[in-house]
What we know:
By secondary structure, this protein is α/β, with parallel strands linked by helices. The chain has a single domain, classed as Maf protein (Alpha-Beta Complex), CATH 3.90.950.10. The chain is 29% helix and 23% strand.
Amino acid sequence: xxxxxxxxxxxxxxxxxxxxxxxxxxxxxxxxxxxxxxxxxxxxxxxxxxxxxxxxxxxxxxxxxxxxxxxxxxxxxxxxxxxxxxxxxxxxxxxxxxxxxxxxxxxxxxxxxxxxxxxxxxxxxxxxxxxxxxxxxxxxxxxxxxxxxxxxxxxxxxxxxxxxxxxxxxxxxxxxxxxxxxxxxxxxxxxxxxxxxxxxx
Length: 201
């Protein structure tokens, strides 16, 4: 049985405001007092794992050790099937040192030039780590298609160029609550909450 989160302060091990906001919204019903790694001035660890889960665990462990509090880390990215899963775990790096995802989205579109298969999926790994080093990890996905030009301004990252299967608008055109219902992060969260937040009112 997975270890339970018992409420109180929880560090979100991210310096990405969009990601912190989305995670905070998902955690709102579960008694977590969310603070971000950026707010605490924590340094970002080197993410040298080879999978989303490995990188999420690196971030969660670093934040839990540095803060003395439970920490939740997300490692997520876009995997474009015709590009052998790229950008994958390097999704943020494709955006360059300034984390400009307009650049990253253009790189994906240029790589897909003259390729008919535009299928892709978003993947999200969530790792919840306690200060004693115990960690629980979960992964979720959502399948979809890449579109161009980009559309919408409600999301972040690659959201403006991704339409989930069964939808006709991009993640960046969806209201946050609608995205939360179907996203890769929401799918991973359902697993996390079912395993670790069952006793939190």
